[in-house]
Amino acid sequence: MGCDFAFIHCADLHLGSRFWGLSRTDPELADRLYRSTFKSFARIVDAGIARADFMVIAGDAYDDLVETPRTRAAFVKELERFGKPVFMVTGNHDAVHSWSESIPYPDNVTEFSRPDRVKITVRGRQVEIAGVSFDGPHTDENLVSKLRGTPGIFTVGVVHCSVDTVGEGGGYAPCSVRDFKGKDIQYWALGHIHKRMTVCQDPPAVYPGNIQGRHVNESGEKGCVLVSVTGDSVETEFIPTQEVLWKDVTADITGKGNLRELVSSVRNEADTDAILSLTIEGKGPLNSIVRHEPEVVADMISESTGAIVNIRRVITSPEIDIERERESGTLLSEVIKASDSLAELSEEEILDMLCSSKHFQDLRPYLVYYAHKGMLRDLVREAEMSLLGRLTEAGE
Question: What fold does the segment set 5-240 form as a domain?
Answer without folding.
Answer: Purple Acid Phosphatase; chain A, domain 2 (3.60.21)
